[in-house]
Amino acid sequence: MSLDSDVLIIGAGLSGLATAVQLVKKFGTRNFEVIEKSDNIGGTWWLNSYPGCACDVQSHFYSFSFALNPGWTRLFASQSEIHKYLKDVAEDYKILPHVRFKSSVRQALWDPVAAVWQVEFEDLSTHSIHKRRCKILVSAVGALSIPKKCDVPGAEGFNGRLFHSAEWDHSFDWKGKEVIVLGNGCSATQFVPIISKGEGSAKKVIQFSRQSHWLAPWSNPEYSSLFKWTMRWIPGVMRAYRFYLFAQKELTFRSFAITSGRPLREQDTRDTAEYIRRNAPQKYVNFLVPKTEIGCKRRVNDTHYLTSLHRDNVELIYDDAVERIAASGVITKSGRHVSADAIVLATGFETHKFLFPMEIRGENGVSLNEHWSQVSEGASSAYFGTCVSGFPNFFIMMGPNTLTGHLSVIYTVECQVNFTMRVIAPIMRSLSARHAGKASRNPDSVAVLVEAERRDLNWVQKRCKNLVWATGCTSWFIEPQTGQNTIMYPDWPTVYWLRSIWVPWRDFSYRKSKEF
User: Fold this and answer.
1) Are 384 and 456 in contact (CB under 8 A)?
2) How far is 511 from 444, CA to CA, in rounded Å?
3) Rounded to an integer, what distance in angstroms lies between the CA atom of residue 18 and that of residue 15?
4) Spans in the chain with pLDDT lower than 70
5) Regarding beta strands 178-182 and 204-208, do their DSSP bridges make them parallel or antiparallel, or are they unpaired?
6) What letter does residue 217 receive in the DSSP assignment?
7) 64-100 burial code (b ≥16 CB/10 A, e <16)
8) Beta strand pairing call for 322-326 and 32-35
9) Is residue 387 within 8 Å of 448, Cβ to Cβ?
10) Over the stretch 82-93, which tens digit does the pLDDT of each residue have?
11) CA 152/CA 331 separation, integer angstroms
12) Which of UniProt's keywords are assigned here (predicted)?
């Protein structure tokens, strides 16, 4: 039985990079390969490059615990600074030689006899098809990797530019142009203030929005030279500051319980509503103050968005939805024609199509979708958001029910990666012995038991029903067909970290194949 690599990682974003680094740190191995569909590392922080793109988590917490960065320039880092940080990490740990860029995994099939994954991918430059055999397969594609397509009738007949904010057309110069924005999420609140400001602004920015968001006060000061010197040279200070940021965010979870968290949410609602009323144009206030429970959706930082709504060249339309797209603009339900040189889609991502469009088939040729139909009514699910029964040696980073409404995704990723390293340790020892030409009694495959998977899924959904995400708002956390929450982890993030350390080994089955 031959292997092309011990471990194959799909995706070179945050979680793919973290997985690769920990393989080096924990096991001293470089027998891994990373398949990345874009032409650079960084995932969402490479693909999302729209004007004003930045993180909503403080930079000193939005970073790997194994690669602290004393040189962050601001409280909240920009897309370009985050991407540079990730590239520096990749270079420091010599990960880039292991990455195959412009390649897209099409399918992965489990071979039960040899206990290996057979992975097929396409070289997007030549369109040639390649195959790899690996012992361990890690999906690190993330939940925000597939932009939603435009579903408004008539899009194909539009004569101007039409693009998603995650696929920003940098050849488009918005100066003096009429720009329509569809959507009102985090990306729109970041780029609308940019393209509507100053001498190089758009002639007109018309934003269509169906729902409002709780907008949090925001400022982004630069870190002083003294602060950066302190972070770099005084031992322990940077980790202490990082823990301080974590503790602040961790305590927010107190308000998420529907009943016990209500007093905290009520006070937060009063404060945030007053902030919006004080800073928004009066004509938009009734719409901009949400009617939904605060915390039901992740809050959005007000990156000067409310200020931009006061400008003469910005119009917010919330009561006359777009019905169809015409050659020169859009037609609303009332029949109004709004002309445009460009239409920008700020409509989010396909968050419920986990691993789409890849075809992953485990034991007995069962696909992930077929498995989910059996165990979770068709909604995406995974044990610890990471493992799926019947899919040995397969791990999903940023999988179902791993995100939080208030914390850094890197925190969750590191918990998942550390959990995965513990689970695969016996297999890595077996692989190490094999490479050294020695016999090993260690197993070469592991899978979570189906009863453990079902128990974990039932616990997750039961907990979710008692948290603020279940109060009725429309959000991308909820799978529309089943009503299940497939995105959020329903407990304190500290609990998630503890679970990544103390693995319940009774929930897993280890095996040794005859060919190994």
Assistant:
1) yes
2) 6
3) 5
4) 1, 143-145, 350-353, 476, 516
5) parallel
6) P
7) beeeebbebeebbbbbebbbbbbbebbeebebeebbb
8) unpaired
9) yes
10) 999 999 999 999
11) 11
12) FAD, Flavoprotein, Oxidoreductase
Contact between residue 362 and residue 382 where contact means Cβ atoms under 8 Å apart: no
Give the amino acid at 175. K
Q: What whole-number distance in Å separates Cα of residue 138 and Cα of residue 158?
A: 40
Taking alpha carbons only, the member of 305, 321, 265, 17 closest to residue 152 is: 321
DSSP letters of 139-190? E---SS-SBPPP-STTGGG--SEEEEGGG--TT---TT-EEEEE--SHHHHH
Q: Do residues 134 and 6 lie in contact, with contact meaning Cβ atoms separated by under 8 Å?
A: yes
Please give the C-alpha separations between residue 10 and each of 35, 38, 194, 286, in angstroms, as whole numbers.
5, 12, 34, 45
CB atoms under 10 Å from CB of 259, counted, come to 7
Residues 6+ apart with CB under 8 A from 300: 56, 185, 186, 189, 213, 214, 215, 216
Beta bridge partners of 508: 448
Residues in the chain: 516
DSSP three-state, residue 125: coil
Determine the residue type at 290: P
292 contacts: CB under 8 Å, gap ≥ 6: 211, 471, 472, 473
Contact 430, 116 (CB under 8 A): no
What's the whole-model pTM score? Answer: 0.94
Q: What is the pLDDT of residue 353?
A: 64
Transcribe 317-346 into DSSP letters.
E-SS-EEEEETTEEEETT--EEE-SEEEE-
In angstroms, the CA 290 to CA 472 distance is 13
Helices assigned H by DSSP within 216-367? 225-233, 237-250, 262-279, 285-288, 305-308
pLDDT at 440: 82
